[in-house]
Amino acid sequence: MYRIVVLALDGVVDSSLALTLDSIATANRLAAAKGQGNRLATTLFRPGRRRIRTGMGATHVVEPEIRIEHYDAVVVPGLGLASPEEVDRFLAARSSRSVIDWMRTTGRRAPLVAASCSAVFLLAEAGLLTDRTATTTWWLGAAFRDRYPDVDLDETRMLVESDGTLSAGAALAQIDLMLHLIARATSPDLARDVSRYLAIDQRPSQARYMMLSAVAGLGQDVCDIERWIRANLSRAFSIAEMAKALGMSTRTIDRRVRLATGRGASRFIQRLRLESAAHLIETSDLQVSRIAEQVGYRDASTLRRLMRRHMDASPSEMRRRSA
C-alpha cells in the first residue's frame, strides 16, 4: 500500500483537491476491478488543525497530527493565488509559516514531496527546491524566479520531477501530477487506465496556454512586444527590426522579455511560434509544411525537430491525441 499525505491548506483550489482525491479513488476502483485491491491510501493533513476551508468555502475534516515515517509522499494541491502580491501575503501569514516550518523539518523526510500551481512556492520557501528544477503556474513564473534564484525554473513544462520533488503547472495540472504519481507508486498501466477513465490527455507543456499579456504587472512594453511578435509570426524577422518598429533598443527588448520569462527575446519568439503551431495542429487539417510556413519556419522538418525538443511531442502525436 502506497500511503499519501494530502496537505490540505486554507484556500486550496477546490478542483485541485478534488482531482487529487478522485484520481486516487479511481485508481483504487480500477485496481479492485482487476482483483488487485486498494493500491493507494490517502490522509488529509494540516499541522495543528482539524478543519480547513477551500477556496469556494467547503469545509474538510483533517488529521491534526501524523507520523511522516508511515507515509510515502506528501502532496500539496494547488492554491488560488493569482498575483505576486497574493503570494507574498500568503507566505507571510502566521498560519502559512507553521506549514512551511513543518515542511522544512518534517515533511522533507517523505520520499517524495509534490505540489502544483502556486503551492510550489511553499516547497521553495521551505528550501526543498534549492538547486533543483521545478515548474509552477506560468503567470507567476517571473515572481517565482525573482524570489528563488537558486531554483532552476521552467514554467513552460507541465510536470517536473527532480531529486525527491515533483512540481506541476497551473491548478488543473494537478491531474498530470497525480497520474505521474500513480504510475510511480503502482504501475504505468494503472495510470493509463485512470487517464482513460477520466478522459485526460497527455499535456507535456504549458507553453501553448501561456499568454504574456495576461500577466498583471509586467508593463505595457512587454505586452506590446508580445502583440508585435504574434502579428508577424508568419515571416522571418530580426530583433533589430522589431526594436525599430516598437521604438526600443534591442537591449531593452531582451532585458524586459528576460525579466518576464527568464529567457531572451529569441527564445521567447521561438516559444510563440511553437505554441501557435501546436494550436493549428490540434484545430485544423492543414499539412505540417503549411503550418510551418504560417508560423515562420522554412520547412516542416525544422518545425518537427523543435516541437519534439521543446514540447516533447511530434506534430503527428499532437494531432493524434487531439483527434
Overall description:
- This protein has 323 residues and is α/β, with parallel strands linked by helices.
- The protein folds into two domains: 2-203, Class I glutamine amidotransferase (GATase) domain (Rossmann fold); 210-322, Arc Repressor Mutant, subunit A (Orthogonal Bundle).
- The chain is built from 14 helices and ten strands.
- The chain has helices at 14-33, 84-92, 94-105, 120-125, 141-147, 174-185, 188-197, 220-231, 239-246, 250-261, 265-283, 288-294, 300-311, 315-322; strands at residues 2-7, 40-45, 51-53, 59-61, 73-76, 112-116, 133-134, 152-153, 159-162, 165-168.
- The chain has a six-stranded mixed β-sheet with strand order 2-1-5-6-10-9. Strands 3-4 form a two-stranded antiparallel ribbon.
- Strand 3 (51-53) and strand 4 (59-61) form a beta hairpin.
- Helix 1 runs parallel beside helix 6 and helix 12 packs across helix 13 (300-311).
- The model is unreliable at 213-217 (pLDDT under 50).
